[in-house]
Amino acid sequence: MNVLITGATSGIGRQLALDYAAAGHHVIACGRNTTKLSELASEVADATRITTAVFDVTNQQQTQSVLQDTLKQLAEPLDVAILNAGVCEYIDDAQNFEVALVERVFAANFFGVVNCIAALLPNLPKGSKLVVVDSMARQFPFTRAEAYGASKAAVHYFASALRTDIVDTGIQVITVSPGFVETPMTDANDFEMPMRISVAEASQAMRKGIAKGKAHIAFPSVFGFILASLQRLPYRLQIALSKRMRNH
Ligand SMILES: NC(=O)c1ccc[n+]([C@@H]2O[C@H](COP(=O)([O-])OP(=O)(O)OC[C@H]3O[C@@H](n4cnc5c(N)ncnc54)[C@H](OP(=O)(O)O)[C@@H]3O)[C@@H](O)[C@H]2O)c1
Fold first, then answer.
1. Catalytically annotated residue among 90, 148, 157, 235
2. Residue nearest to ligand 1 atom 14, measured at CA
3. Which residues contact 216 (CB under 8 A, 6 or more apart)?
4. Are 51 and 67 in contact, with CB atoms under 8 Å apart?
5. CA–CA gap between residue 112 and residue 80 (Å, rounded)
6. Which residue has a Cα nearest atom 46 of ligand 1?
7. CB distance 18 to 42 below 8 Å
């Protein structure tokens, strides 16, 4: 299979790239940091199993031209595209938040995915899979996560509506909602992260769900179930629980 992964220079995307290559697939590892991409490529034993593509997902023109050139160079069309690149920034002072922060988060997490989809979709064959990584954060009003959670809710909705509109093309849209995963993104968090799993477990859950052709992949499932239950609580209880996380 040809598997394209954005955000392959770190965390979940990097692990997915290594695991798909180790399983004998050809990985197109995308990122904006050429040094980190070369380091990743050097870790793949068989160099023919990895190609790198350098672009910033927030730059629409660059994303379009690099992805189109990359696809042209493939001997076979793409089988799987995993749109995983993302950023997390929290709002510390909700009464005086910076609009620029919200714009930065949406530029990567929402428009970054939209830019990749626009570049890839006309070139995806029947039977291919378009995988969009959102987050379980979209399911609960986590403290300080106004920008991050909203960007993930937005990208989840975009992918879900797209699933409906392209159902007849034979291209499958898969949404992925991870809970907490040990990566540089969450290493920066200073609060308790219940049920945080390793990047290897996250990669395994994603690869398994993608192989099965599941429409939606969420892990760890117990954490997803808890969040879904919390969503049904009265708002005052949701607020109290969310605030407790901030105080840990
Ligand atoms: N870790 C978690 O607990 C968790 C939970 C739910 C959802 N997620 C989502 O999973 C995805 C991967 O997260 P992670 O934890 O693996 O984070 P990470 O280790 O910080 O990796 C993020 C990746 O996205 C890339 N990226 C960010 N902005 C980009 C841009 N403008 N253009 C191109 N690439 C860009 C980064 O590239 P650079 O190396 O150049 O910065 C990096 O490769 C994200 O979408 C995140 O929101 C993570």
1. 148
2. 11
3. 174, 175, 176, 177
4. no
5. 17
6. 86
7. no
pTM of the model as a whole? 0.97
Structure tokens at 74: 């493939």
DSSP state of 193: -
With both helix axes pointing from N to C terminus, report the angle between 112-120 and 60-72 in degrees, rounded to the nearest 10: 40
How far is it, in rounded angstroms, from Cα 18 to Cα 218?
Answer: 21
Rounded average pLDDT per 10-residue block, the chain, 248 residues: 98 98 98 98 95 98 97 95 98 96 98 98 97 96 95 98 97 98 90 90 98 98 92 90 74
Domains of the chain, each with CATH number or no CATH = 2-247 (3.40.50.720)
- For ligand 1, whether the C-beta of 133 sits within 6 Å is yes
Work out which ligand 1 atom sits closest to the CA atom of 86: 45
Whether residue 148 lies in the annotated active site? yes
CA distance between the termini of the chain: 44
CA atoms within 13 A on the CB side of 111: 12
Q: How far apart are CA 207 and CA 212, in angstroms?
A: 9
| Ligand 1 nearest-atom number relative to CA 33 | 40
